[in-house]
Design a protein that fits this description.
10 strands, alpha/beta, 9 helices
């Protein structure tokens, strides 16, 4: 469904992604895991058109996306939930959510909103609230709802668990599974290896802008290097 082929990205003279190959098949949850500065967010920005690659190709359902600006990609079936939510804090929850439907025909907004609130029913009681007055977890649900209003086939999620309590992490994880059960593929990034790969069908490990490992979620969790470096399992235990 979504395929990144040989993606290079530069910020000025500094290269931050090197020949990154990734794909998301229909119905998958795919995790990008790696330390800070590894390029995880840049992968999502390149996929969405928020950062133009300096090399490589982005395809959606086989269609070249390079010439499509970020504002047009929701029309083709992509949406993104940005890091730190990026809501309009003085606008209402309802106003923030329906902004996500700008790429859809106006006649579909009501039906899309009903679908989104069916997935995120806790938001029904907060539609008239000012978005900036919500808790961090509630704001994250508003950001997810806004992304879903585009009725995407692929939802990109940049650090969806950042700054959330453990209880809210579990809630957002459950929401992601529910979204996926509705047929929406998800590509997300995260620094917590156990959380990432337990939630995902497949995963990629990114270091210094390069994919160094990929496999099913369970294969990633079982890999000796992931266990040693990211799960804190001692070498003799890995053996």
């Amino acid at each position: 469904m979504l395929r990144l082929e040989g993606i290079d990205v530069h910020y000025g003279a500094t290269q931050v992604l090197w020949s990154v190959d990734m794909h998301v098949a229909q119905g998958e949850i795919v995790a990008i895991m790696g330390p800070n500065g590894s390029g995880k967010s840049t992968v999502l920005k390149a996929a969405m058109g928020l950062k133009a690659p300096s090399g490589g190709r982005v395809r959606l359902d086989g269609r070249e996306m390079q010439s499509a600006p970020a504002t047009e990609r929701p029309r083709h079936g992509m949406a993104i939930v940005l890091e730190r939510r990026r809501l309009f804090p003085r606008m209402s929850v309802h106003e923030n959510i329906v902004l996500g439907a700008y790429a859809r025909p106006a006649r579909e907004t009501r039906g899309s909103l009903d679908w989104v609130l069916g997935l995120l029913p806790d938001l029904r009681d907060h539609l008239d609230a000012t978005a900036g007055k919500l808790s961090g977890g509630q704001q994250q649900m508003v950001a997810i709802a806004r992304g879903l209003m585009a009725r995407p086939r692929v939802l990109l999620m940049d650090e969806p668990f950042l700054g959330l309590s453990p209880a809210m992490v579990r809630t957002v994880s459950a929401i992601m599974r529910t979204i996926n059960d509705e047929g929406v593929a998800i590509l997300f990034n995260e620094q917590n290896a156990k959380l990432s790969f337990a939630l995902s069908h497949r995963g990629y490990l990114l270091e210094s802008g390069r994919v160094i490992l990929s496999g099913s979620g369970q294969e990633m969790l079982d890999h000796p290097e992931v266990k040693r470096v990211y799960l804190g399992v001692r070498e003799e235990a890995v053996r």
